[in-house]
Specification:
single chain, mainly alpha, globular, binds adenosine-5'-triphosphate, 3-stranded parallel beta sheet, 14 helices, binds magnesium ion
């Protein structure tokens, strides 16, 4: 079975619809057909300042959501990144074969650093994609189910794997450039940019754990256009197209069918129905998350077992890497 690795940051009290439709839904599907490793990437989270108590809570909330969404620890290995020290160790080696200019060309870094002011942005934020490469290469992953927004980071991972293999001898699987992802979901208030935990305003984000009334209001207030026609046209009708994408992804009905259904009807009807299909999805999810959070010790035990399993793979890759580089064996 192909090996799959993906991660998500514990940087919000809830995952949003972009996380789910762009990536997490594929995580659940891929555990059936692949040897999947999924991690909550708390090392990535601290590339921007985090309150310790909030981070700890969000790490558990993130794991609870993954379990509630259907990640099954009999099929997939679910763990927290900081509990597998090999991630930080391999990242160091990869940092040393990454060009300064190469890292500086990453658009996510440029976006996030410019939002913070470049003097405030941390060196950790700069090397974020290198740590991501370490996550992937440690597990010799063939496939990486991430959103379209991660394409450039995946390309860097492939470059670093190839460079290391050429310099030191074959060590890492070069992951497929194919993005195993779903839709790119846009900010409801600004449908020219992606829905994002760190960049979107609260009104632009649909959180999976929002109360139904809250998400219905956000969807009702979503920016559309001055026209009246419900038509999928990402250039001219970015907002309406985003709502159609969301409806289609959640209801399983093709966009073309939805266009017919809403022909001659207003945007209001579409928005009402998007809110309804969303509520059908999130109501049982919220209950399941509450169930996991009610017993944090049990949740921590599930994660400890995942980390144990992850370490058996990660430590073998790290040992091979250290040997290639010329580090002395630990006797
Ligand atoms: P941040 O803004 O802090 O980067 P994020 O909202 O992008 O947060 P991440 O934890 O970085 O969330 O990403 C988790 C996964 O969700 C990644 O695989 C990413 O590609 C995917 N993803 C994030 N936003 C979207 C989106 N709007 N549409 C589709 N996929 C997305
Ligand atoms: Mg992101």
């Amino acid at each position: 079975a192909p090996r799959v690795l993906s991660g998500i940051q514990p940087t919000a009290d809830s995952f949003h619809l972009g996380n789910y439709l762009g990536a997490l839904r594929q995580w659940v599907a891929l555990q059936e057909t692949s040897d999947a490793f999924y991690c909550v990437v708390d090392l990535h989270a601290i590339t921007v300042a985090q309150d310790p108590a909030v981070l700890r809570h969000r790490t558990r909330v993130s794991a609870a959501q993954l379990l509630a969404l259907g990640i099954d620890t009999d099929r997939a290995t679910l763990f927290v990144q900081s509990q597998v020290p090999e991630h930080a160790q391999l990242a160091w080696v990869l940092n040393c074969i990454t060009g300064f200019g190469e890292a500086g060309r990453m658009t996510q870094f440029k976006d996030k650093a410019s939002r913070q002011g470049s003097d405030r942005a941390s060196v950790g934020l700069f090397t974020y994609p290198v740590l991501q490469a370490a996550d992937i290469l440690l597990y010799q992953a063939d496939q990486v189910p991430v959103g379209e927004d991660q394409r450039q980071h995946l390309e860097l991972t492939r470059d670093l794997a190839g460079r290391f293999n050429t310099t030191y001898g074959p060590t890492f699987t070069v992951p497929s450039p194919h993005i195993v992802s779903g839709a790119k979901i846009l900010d409801l208030q600004d449908p020219t940019s992606k829905m994002s935990k760190s960049a979107s305003s609260p009104a632009g984000i649909v959180d999976l754990l929002d109360e139904p009334a809250v998400s219905a209001k956000k969807i009702r207030s979503a920016v559309t256009d001055t026209g009246r026609e419900v038509r999928f046209d990402p250039q001219e009708k970015a907002g309406v197209s985003n709502l159609l994408t969301i409806h289609s992804a959640l209801s399983g009905r093709p966009v073309a069918e939805l266009e017919l259904e809403y022909a001659g009807r207003g945007y209001g009807d579409l928005k009402k129905d998007v809110a309804a299909v969303l509520t059908d999805f999130t109501t049982p999810l919220r209950a399941a998350v509450d169930g996991y959070l009610a017993d944090p010790a049990q949740l921590d035990a599930i994660l400890a077992e995942g980390a144990e399993r992850a370490r058996t793979v990660a430590s073998a890759t790290l040992a091979a890497t250290f040997d290639r580089v010329g580090f002395l064996p630990r006797v």
